[in-house]
């Protein structure tokens, strides 16, 4: 009698055993990487706007204004989501920014429109709009040069 040895069935490959978890995990990983990339771009753009001289001068002017300090209280904190644009090339450029700020007594938005010439920012508009209050023009309220 000859006995034929039973041939075992071939083992399925790695893909056929693991595709059910690998495909969703791969899609989730790609989605997370895309979201991280978008977040990184957003952080870089916000950081570059906040590090500009136009932004810093506008916030410093608002913080130094006694009317703004009286209506918002201290400390005055900057918001994270700055909107607008800044274009700078060497010693010239322009900026149009909306900067959210807040204090213990309320919230406000600084609107700064400026142009840069020979390395110096000149503001054509610098206002603060406090919630429920009329707009404050910070350019009108600045003291003139001493004579």
* Integer tally of domains: 2
The number of helical segments is 4
Share of helix, binned: 40-55%
Oligomer: single chain
Q: What number is the mean pLDDT?
A: 87
By CATH, the superfamily of the largest domain comes out as Mitochondrial import inner membrane translocase subunit Tim21
Terminal-residue CA separation:
124 Å
**Would you count the extended β strands for me?**
6
Q: What structural class do you assign from the helix and strand content? A: alpha+beta
N-to-C series of helices and strands: HHHEEEEEEH
Key traits:
4 helices, 41% helix, 147 residues
Brief summary of the model shown:
The protein is α+β, with helices and mostly antiparallel strands and 147 residues long. It is built from four helices and six strands; from the N terminus they run H-H-H-E-E-E-E-E-E-H. It folds into two domains: 36 residues; 89 residues, Roll (Nuclear Transport Factor 2, Chain: A), CATH 3.10.450.320.
């Amino acid at each position: 009698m000859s006995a034929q040895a039973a041939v075992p069935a071939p083992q399925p490959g790695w893909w056929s055993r693991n595709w059910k978890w690998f495909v969703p995990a791969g899609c989730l990983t790609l989605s997370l990487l895309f979201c991280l990339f978008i977040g990184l771009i957003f952080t870089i753009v916000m950081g570059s706007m906040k590090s500009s001289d136009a932004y810093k001068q506008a916030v410093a002017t608002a913080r130094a204004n006694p009317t703004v300090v009286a209506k918002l209280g201290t400390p005055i904190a900057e918001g994270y989501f700055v909107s607008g644009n800044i274009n700078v090339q060497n010693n010239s450029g322009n900026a149009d920014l909306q900067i959210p700020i807040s204090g213990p007594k309320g919230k406000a938005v600084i609107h700064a429109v400026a142009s840069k010439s020979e390395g110096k920012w000149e503001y054509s508009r610098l206002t603060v709009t406090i919630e429920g209050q009329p707009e404050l023009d910070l350019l009108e309220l600045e003291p003139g040069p001493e004579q």
